[in-house]
Amino acid sequence: MNVQIRDAEAVRAIQPVDAALYLRANSWNKRHTEAGRSSTWTRTVTGEEEEFEALLPLDASIRDYALRMGDLLTVLAAAERRSQAEVYADLLEITSDVVRIRIADPELQDGTLPIEEHAQIAQRARDLMLAAACATIEKRAVWHKRKPGQAIEHVRRVRIGQSERGSYVVTVLSRITPQLQANPAVLFEPETPYDRRVTETLAHSLSALAGASEQAALTQQMAAFDAAVPQGVNSNLCDAVVGLWGGDEVQRNLEFSFSWSPTRPVALGEIRRVAFSSDRVPLIREAGRLMRERAPLPDFELSGPVLRLERADGEVTGKVTIVGIVDDRQVRVAVDLSDPEYQTAVQAHAQGRTVSLSGSLHREGRGYVLRNPTGIMVEAE
């Protein structure tokens, strides 16, 4: 169907730089430039004698900019034998990696979604991108409340596009820094920018998660998920995937597809699609829970009353049990303290006052242990 774009404001949204990047990425050749006004591009369609010529306006402030950009859109659609709507969408997304999250559910075949689920899916899509942004910085099984500032800032720049047909499809757009060609005489290999590395991490971690869930389905072992952590899998990613799934009462399949910005080409073998069948999601949910439960909490601030004091005769260290709050639950936490800190705990216990200190919180068996404790203080009444 040859859909045409007639809305002048919609056409005006196409920026000259984005159009130039699109032309170069699609084998158009720049022939002439009139500084500050326009440039002329040509392309010969493979296997045909016909040559197309396109005029790109360079100044978006001119009065007939929308008209000229509309002419360019018409030429591109004719040369590529596509509708203007398809070309228009690609022009707007030329500098973005696009992640499409397809939620396949018989109840969503019309492309609509219950209003109560809309906010949840948007939040889980954000969580998905944040999990990948954190894993790009460091591969670890769990990211707790304190996330890297670079990861948070990246997610703030990510955009949600219009939903698409095909059950329910969420489009996530991550703007990518275009690649500049370096001087070939200079031996220099530029580092891939962080924004592209986040999308790559997301693709690789989802692929690793799919593989781990397949192995776990066959073995009922957690080892496959643990082995996938160096590839970017973490409990945050597991929780995001489970949240997109919806719950045990649905039979949804999830599919993640990746459209890589041509302004920064990827290898031919780069991941394009990762799918999860509904029967894998409970395994992923359990893996996320176990990762979160077993992983230590760094810089954990423990505060509570001293329940028990234990120190053998002649020992310089003693064990203190403190009642604290972990994941909104009251638990007992064991702490080994040297003599000065131990005396502080003895004082607090005698006075019936709470203590506060920080360290790395670890789950051991059914209890918790705070390691490398620092800064113990008796809190005021």
Report on the structure:
The protein has 11 helices and 13 strands. The termini are far apart. Strands 5-6-4-7-8 form a 5-stranded antiparallel β-sheet, with helices on one face. It has a 5-stranded mixed barrel with strand order 9-10-11-13-12. It has a 3-stranded antiparallel β-sheet with strand order 1-2-3. The mean pLDDT is 88. It is an alpha+beta fold and 381 residues long. A hairpin with a 2-residue loop joins strand 10 (317-326) and strand 11 (329-338). The longest helix has 26 residues, at 194-219. The chain has 3 domains: 8-94; 97-178 and 193-294, no CATH class; 297-378, Nucleic acid-binding proteins (OB fold (Dihydrolipoamide Acetyltransferase, E2P)), CATH 2.40.50.
Question: How many discrete structural domains?
Answer: 3
How many extended strands?
A: 13
Number of helices: 11
Runs in which pLDDT lies below 50 for 5 or more consecutive residues are: none
Q: What's the average pLDDT?
A: 88
